[in-house]
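Researcher: Go.
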Amino acid sequence: MDRSSGRARHSGDLIASLSGRNPARNLHSDVLWHLGFAIVSGRYAEGTILPSDGELLEQFGVSRTVLREALKTLAAKGLIEARARIGTRVLPRNRWNLFDADVLAWHFELGPEVSFLRSLAEVRIGIEIEAAALAAHRRTDEQAEAMAEAVSQMEASTTPEDFARHDLQFHRLVAEASGNPFMASISALVEMALTAAFTISSPVNEPTALAQTVTVHGAIAKAISEGDAQGARDAMRVAISDGFARAAGRMDQG
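Model: Structure:
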């Protein structure tokens, strides 16, 4: 495995850790991560044909079953397509499932670029502000209390990992309280966006940024608790925009 693929795998493990998942470690996942990152990074460009199965088997030293399962997984993510007598072709980027956690992680390892973070923020704003508005109408008392508790845990966090974990939990609670199952389906995107932002710049070590982040999340929780849909929208937009601005600003400084 090359160093870039190793970094991509580490990124996926970090996302899994923050989200509470336990990433499986086996030959299938190793081949998957290596090939997936090679495609997203452009090593295997769009429209090109992957090396033959024989070449890939020799490269990875795995069984044909393991290789085929990895290729099936990449096909399910929209990255490749196998054609008889032609081979396995890398599909155009507009066919890739960018909401998939692995595909997002591979993109993250390429920088992440400011344009990538901006795209994540724009999608989140388009979806999460309406999730917050719906939550203001549909939340239960228990969900409102859980949001307030998540904000308290964010404020008490002493490490970037803990803060990111509680922040992710807060956004999950908002999605669940919206009562719309499609809102919760973007959890991989939210996980990736938060992981990227906090890897670049966590507010934990910046008292002013921490206070501002906690305050705006508290405003979201308060608006949802009080049934203020527009207030929830406005506060959620600020939370997402501030997170992007903080990360982008740190990247510009670097």
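Model: The chain has twelve helices and two strands.
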